[in-house]
């Protein structure tokens, strides 16, 4: 039976905040009614702040579970992140032998078919490798290789691939971007030793953005702009990890000025939401301590970031709530071509979070289901 739900407060719509109410039924927003209100009033009043649910396109794990474990791990990860306001996400793979990637994809595919109660919607897979440069692995195991369309389509048959990270300078990768886009995949540039020119060429072929901007790519120098320079000069979309460890606040501000639709990802690992200690990240063992996750040699290995903290970090850098909300919801949805998520309007998915004026989560609703945050 259809159940009508209602939330009152300051509601962020595509036209700005309104002070009123949102009603939803059968998992969809039915109506939003209210009067326009300034963001300064939103911050001053101790009323509920209703924002679109967060969308995270780069999630390796959470709550002690790693996507590469396969089986039920993806469902456990989705249940962990929903408690931090993530209502939709991509399960992200690691570079690994193909047999291990296939096993992970089978587990993800089962979870994608039906959203479990109490979990975020798993939209599909972000394939972060193995089509990356072995010289810019970051925390990825060294099983990198050039991409092959037949291999990608076989993986896609196991679970829906929505996003592919690749290094355009590897043999054949640049030429594969246009066919991948024609087949419906979004492609982004990452884990790359490519030049500025490689980046520009990849964007011209249809690559849509960049994987965790600044990390695992050639940096910018005024005579060799590198892949970072290509992103800052030409990109409309790019991921960034705003945990304040992967990128200095000053670098984040540069990216915000240069890239119109810069959006946040967590790049979170099994250690997200867990105490300090050792956890799995694909074939690696990583250690969580002092707010970060690292390999034994000190290399940053994903993060412990959650999307509610990402929002707070952006606001702490000086962004208005409306702008920060777009960067944890709207732009990621646009990037994947989703027109019914990432914003709140009649007919969209009833995915939203309710926060207090300190931007602490009070409620999370996914497709009309109230999530137990305990």
From TrEMBL:
<feature type="active site" description="Proton donor/acceptor">
    <location>
        <position position="267"/>
    </location>
</feature>
<dbReference type="InterPro" id="IPR032466">
    <property type="entry name" value="Metal_Hydrolase"/>
</dbReference>
<feature type="binding site">
    <location>
        <position position="191"/>
    </location>
    <ligand>
        <name>Zn(2+)</name>
    </ligand>
</feature>
<protein>
    <submittedName>
        <fullName>N-acetylglucosamine-6-phosphate deacetylase</fullName>
    </submittedName>
</protein>
<keyword id="KW-0378">Hydrolase</keyword>
<dbReference type="GO" id="GO:0046872">
    <property type="term" value="F:metal ion binding"/>
</dbReference>
<dbReference type="GO" id="GO:0006046">
    <property type="term" value="P:N-acetylglucosamine catabolic process"/>
</dbReference>
<keyword id="KW-0479">Metal-binding</keyword>
<feature type="binding site">
    <location>
        <position position="128"/>
    </location>
    <ligand>
        <name>Zn(2+)</name>
    </ligand>
</feature>
<dbReference type="InterPro" id="IPR003764">
    <property type="entry name" value="GlcNAc_6-P_deAcase"/>
</dbReference>
<comment type="similarity">
    <text>Belongs to the metallo-dependent hydrolases superfamily. NagA family.</text>
</comment>
<feature type="binding site">
    <location>
        <position position="223"/>
    </location>
    <ligand>
        <name>substrate</name>
    </ligand>
</feature>
<feature type="binding site">
    <location>
        <begin position="300"/>
        <end position="302"/>
    </location>
    <ligand>
        <name>substrate</name>
    </ligand>
</feature>
<dbReference type="Pfam" id="PF01979">
    <property type="entry name" value="Amidohydro_1"/>
</dbReference>
<feature type="binding site">
    <location>
        <begin position="215"/>
        <end position="216"/>
    </location>
    <ligand>
        <name>substrate</name>
    </ligand>
</feature>
<feature type="binding site">
    <location>
        <position position="139"/>
    </location>
    <ligand>
        <name>substrate</name>
    </ligand>
</feature>
<feature type="binding site">
    <location>
        <position position="246"/>
    </location>
    <ligand>
        <name>substrate</name>
    </ligand>
</feature>
<keyword id="KW-0119">Carbohydrate metabolism</keyword>
<dbReference type="InterPro" id="IPR011059">
    <property type="entry name" value="Metal-dep_hydrolase_composite"/>
</dbReference>
<feature type="domain" description="Amidohydrolase-related">
    <location>
        <begin position="49"/>
        <end position="369"/>
    </location>
</feature>
<feature type="binding site">
    <location>
        <position position="212"/>
    </location>
    <ligand>
        <name>Zn(2+)</name>
    </ligand>
</feature>
<dbReference type="GO" id="GO:0008448">
    <property type="term" value="F:N-acetylglucosamine-6-phosphate deacetylase activity"/>
</dbReference>
<dbReference type="InterPro" id="IPR006680">
    <property type="entry name" value="Amidohydro-rel"/>
</dbReference>
């Amino acid at each position: 039976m259809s159940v009508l739900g209602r939330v009152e407060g300051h509601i962020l719509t595509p036209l700005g905040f309104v002070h009123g109410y949102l009603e939803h039924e059968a998992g969809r927003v039915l109506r939003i009614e209210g009067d326009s209100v300034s963001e300064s009033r939103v911050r001053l009043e101790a009323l509920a702040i209703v924002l679109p649910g967060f969308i995270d396109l780069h999630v390796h794990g959470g709550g002690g579970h790693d996507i590469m474990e396969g089986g039920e791990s993806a469902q456990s990860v989705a249940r962990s992140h929903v408690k931090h306001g993530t209502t939709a996400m991509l399960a992200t793979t690691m570079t690994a032998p193909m047999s291990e990637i296939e096993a992970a994809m089978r587990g993800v595919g089962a979870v994608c078919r039906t959203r479990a109660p109490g979990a975020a919607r798993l939209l599909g897979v972000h394939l972060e490798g193995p089509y990356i440069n072995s010289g810019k692995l970051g925390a990825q195991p060294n099983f990198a290789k050039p991409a092959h369309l037949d291999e990608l389509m076989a993986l896609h048959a196991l679970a829906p691939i929505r996003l592919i990270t690749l290094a355009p300078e590897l043999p054949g990768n640049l030429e594969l971007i246009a066919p991948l886009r024609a087949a419906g995949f979004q492609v982004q540039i990452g884990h790359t030793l490519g030049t500025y020119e490689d980046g520009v060429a990849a964007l011209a072929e249809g690559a849509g953005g960049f994987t965790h901007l600044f990390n695992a790519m050639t940096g910018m120098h005024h005579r060799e702009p590198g892949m970072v320079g290509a992103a800052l000069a030409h990109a409309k979309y790019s991921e960034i990890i705003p945990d304040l460890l992967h990128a200095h606040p000053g670098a984040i501000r540069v990216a915000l000025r240069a890239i119109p639709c810069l959006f946040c990802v967590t790049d979170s690992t099994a250690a997200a939401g867990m105490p300090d200690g050792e956890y799995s990240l694909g074939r690696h063992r990583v250690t969580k301590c002092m707010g970060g996750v690292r390999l034994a040699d000190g290399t940053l290995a994903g993060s412990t970031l959650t999307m509610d903290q990402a929002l707070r970090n952006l606001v702490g850098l000086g962004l208005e709530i409306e702008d920060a909300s777009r960067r944890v919801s709207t732009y990621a949805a646009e990037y994947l071509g989703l027109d019914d998520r990432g914003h709140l309007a009649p007919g969209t998915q009833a995915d939203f979070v309710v926060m207090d004026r300190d931007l602490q989560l009070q409620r999370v609703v996914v497709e009309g289901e109230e999530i137990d945050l305990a």
